[in-house]
Amino acid sequence: MPIKALLFDVFGTVVDWRTSIAREGEEFGRANDITGIDWMAFADAWRALYQPALEQVRSGKSPWMALDDLHRASLDKLLAERGISGISEPALDHFNRAWHRLDPWPDSVVGLTRLKRKYIIATCSNGNVALMVNLAKYAGLPWDAILGAEPAQQYKPTRVVYEKSVALLRLEPAECVMVAAHNYDLEAAAKCGLQCAFVPRPKEFGPPGRAELTPTGNWQVVAKDLNDLAEQLGRRPDF
Amino acid sequence: MPIKALLFDVFGTVVDWRTSIAREGEEFGRANDITGIDWMAFADAWRALYQPALEQVRSGKSPWMALDDLHRASLDKLLAERGISGISEPALDHFNRAWHRLDPWPDSVVGLTRLKRKYIIATCSNGNVALMVNLAKYAGLPWDAILGAEPAQQYKPTRVVYEKSVALLRLEPAECVMVAAHNYDLEAAAKCGLQCAFVPRPKEFGPPGRAELTPTGNWQVVAKDLNDLAEQLGRRPDF
Q1: In chain A, which residues touch B (CB < 8 A)?
Q2: Are A144 and B133 inside 8 Å of each other by CB?
Q3: Of A61, A79, A100, which residue sits at a domain end?
Q4: Helix, strand, or coil here: B113?
Q5: Residue A208 belongs to what domain range?
Q6: Which of A4, A180, B6, B128 gives A9 a disulfide partner, CB atoms 3.0 to 4.6 angstroms apart?
Q7: Residue B103 has pLDDT above 80, yes or no
Q8: Distance between CA atoms of B125 and B146, rounded to whole angstroms?
Q9: One domain for residues B10 and B25
């Protein structure tokens, strides 16, 4: 069955959240006279609250909440823990929207642009629609559609997120390739019948050794970046 | 309040469904040895079943059905009425997807590309996501997001379609402009607090006199095409 669409994980796979959030943290600190914070560590701490926050929704303990709101709750917690208070609401909101201003990896825009010529390229991210749209405009990501968590009202790796994304395109799962730097995401997509492409991002978490470098499943494609993905798909007659 | 997003009606406003469907009808007729059909009249008849089909869903008589499925039910009815039978399922499906292969008006791609530099541009159409994505790829429409009926599980001009589109962008209604060639669409959007731009499309229904040429409300903008819309918005400091 020929491939019609590529569904992308975004945070880590397409954009470099860690150095971008750290840069935005530096700006937030300067603008609000906050000193003594290691903003790279702050970025890691913010991201460390990501899976626990999603789990509140996945487990049913919390009703659906968009990632922007989960990010904000985590931000408020982290600032309180560090004794930072009295920041204006617009400044907090602007910093929370740092997740809308993440830099793409150097190959992302060119690679996506190449892939878009042949395939539907869509997000299948846990980021909500507004976040994904604003991020695409900031980073120049040429998505054909914003799919993923919010249309499904649930978070990956829950099946319904992949299933709803495929259903909205009115395709068969096997006509879609999930593209991600994280094996757990591909494992879940594969269980729903999607094909899988692993694109490791060695620098996602900073120091060497923290990111996943090796596929843990028999993924249909392993590519070193999105240009390599375009080249490999271009060479395969079955794709 | 500055404008952040433009929401577009698509059929008639951005693409010329009538001559495109007629052209696809000619091809369908040739490929399936169907003679004696006026395909321009067939296009008009297919579109004439559009509002009654939507009304089944709007009224609650039918559960949510995507426009692709409503189009197919109408197509089957029209072919049966004309005594056309024995067509293969792939050929019927291909013709039904003629709505995914509609030509843009000459100004649409350039106008949208200009508007996209400054604003989020999204569909707020009754077309389902797959239809809108495939149409965008066929016609080169550079949408930032596909919104409208399917995410709301309801059809325009029901309020929830406009409200859901605005909510998914996490904007205020007054930060959004509904762009349409049809006054009823703008009237409904205005009731939800959106600003409105009327872009008449005199040739939408063919012969002169059939399309709406005049605004029936105090719309914030009346533009002669999407390039004119880009120029007018560029000149207005309040936008």
Answers
A1: 66, 68, 120, 122, 128-130, 133-134, 136-137, 142-147, 150-151, 168-171
A2: yes
A3: A100
A4: helix
A5: 5-16+104-235
A6: A180
A7: yes
A8: 9
A9: no
